[in-house]
Automatic annotation (TrEMBL):
Domain DUF6688 positions: 6-228, 240-353
UniProtKB keywords: Membrane, Transmembrane, Transmembrane helix
Parts of the chain that traverse the membrane: 6-28, 40-58, 78-95, 107-125, 131-149, 186-207
Organism of derivation: Pinibacter soli
Pfam family, one: DUF6688_C
Name the record gives this protein: Uncharacterized protein
Taxonomic placement: Bacteria, Pseudomonadati, Bacteroidota, Chitinophagia, Chitinophagales
Length: 370
């Protein structure tokens, strides 16, 4: 798919629905009524409230220093997902119902609409993607605001019937809140979001979540607006042979470092094992690119695991152990190089050199073969 095709899909999925929501919201502010066709708005609601959360539904499977890191912490994603489900349920329940519920249910419905608004504001700042927020989060916020107004109007229309049925203390208090003027009613409901979220958090504890999971879902991440784990990526080297790179950091007498190398513009320690492994990968990529792609994809999972627990793999004793564990593979790589490559040592020597140094070795190799 070309860039133009991707732009068209992005525009039709987010831009046009978002524009429809903005027009409807502005029209409501001017006239007091919704101005966009109701059936069209149902489609817009599905796209705005369904597609965007689905994009975050994967949330990223892990925190990754070297790629697209998880939007929400993998260990705390369940809390965010459950809150999203409750917010969406409150919205679509409000959109399709024709009669009001009990006062307590009305309070909870409006509270989850407020929670959805706050959550989208936080997500917009966390992802730091302006166009995604403008096309995705802003329309959701506007839709939730419009639904709060609808709920208030519906309650006023049917409040007399509800008042006659209120029996217990909680219902009476809830009814009194619901009958307040909006400038008093909505701040009180916003405050009530805290105890409602507290109850939800207590339930999530049974599913293995932590009391502060909703906060840590944002903070225990890399490279996002509220991330507090960026320091864990400070010394992580991305790309290349993960295990061999770790093994090269062991005790000098064990892993026998030979020289420094260049990777992604930074210096790395190179020993014979790392150079042989990278030379083997280069050969495999030349001779069997499909096999290289398959193996590389699986091996990257090892790299993701290492990046997640990089502090452990940075201990010299651990590096020594990995060095010895990788020895059989090193011998297999070396055997393959000597079997399939006419100048295996030249290939090994070129690994992790600058472009100019590799070119010099290539020129010398060409001169010797003429």
């Amino acid at each position: 798919m070309g860039a133009f095709g991707f732009f068209v899909i992005l525009l039709s999925t987010f831009g046009l629905p978002g524009l429809a929501v903005v027009i409807d919201f502005i029209g409501f502010l001017r006239t007091g009524n919704r101005v966009v066709n109701r059936n069209l708005m149902r489609i817009v609601e599905v796209l705005s409230l369904g597609v965007l959360p689905l994009m975050y539904a994967g949330f990223g499977s892990l925190n990754d220093c070297c790629g697209d890191s998880a939007v929400f912490s993998p260990d705390h994603q369940l809390s965010v997902a459950v809150v999203m489900v409750f917010c969406l349920t409150a919205y679509f329940y409000s959109a399709y119902r024709v009669r009001i519920a009990t006062p307590v249910v009305e309070i909870m419905t409006n509270a989850f609409l407020f929670i959805g608004i706050v959550l989208n504001v936080v997500i917009a700042f966390h992802t730091e993607e302006f166009w995604m927020a403008l096309a995705g989060n802003v329309p959701i916020i506007l839709l939730a605001l419009l639904m709060l107004v609808k709920n208030h109007r519906l309650f006023i229309e049917q409040s007399q019937e509800l008042k006659s049925n209120t029996k217990n203390k909680f219902e009476r208090i809830a009814w009194q809140i619901l009958t307040l003027q909006p400038f008093l009613k909505y701040p009180i409901i916003l405050i009530l979001c805290l105890p409602i979220l507290t109850i939800l958090v207590l339930i999530l504890l049974l599913a293995g979540q932590k009391p502060d999971s909703l906060v840590r879902a944002f903070t225990d991440t890399y490279k996002h607006g509220f991330s507090e784990w960026d320091y864990k990526c400070a010394n992580v080297e991305c790309g290349g042979h993960y295990l061999c790179s770790v093994a090269a950091k062991g005790h000098k007498k064990v892993v026998k470092p030979q020289r420094f190398g260049v990777r992604h513009g930074g210096l790395i320690i190179c020993n014979r094992q790392l150079l042989v492994s990278n030379a083997f990968e280069e050969l495999l990529q030349e001779k069997a690119p499909r096999a290289h792609k398959l193996i590389s994809g699986q091996y990257n999972k090892v790299g993701n695991f290492i990046h997640r627990y990089y502090g452990v793999f940075n201990i010299k004793v651990v590096s020594d152990v990995i060095y010895f564990l990788m020895k059989p593979l090193e011998w297999l790589f070396l055997l393959t190089l000597y079997t399939l490559d006419r100048n295996p040592e030249n290939r090994i020597a070129k690994q992790y050199l600058s472009i100019s140094d590799r070119q010099q070795i290539n020129n010398l190799s060409n001169c010797t073969t003429k």
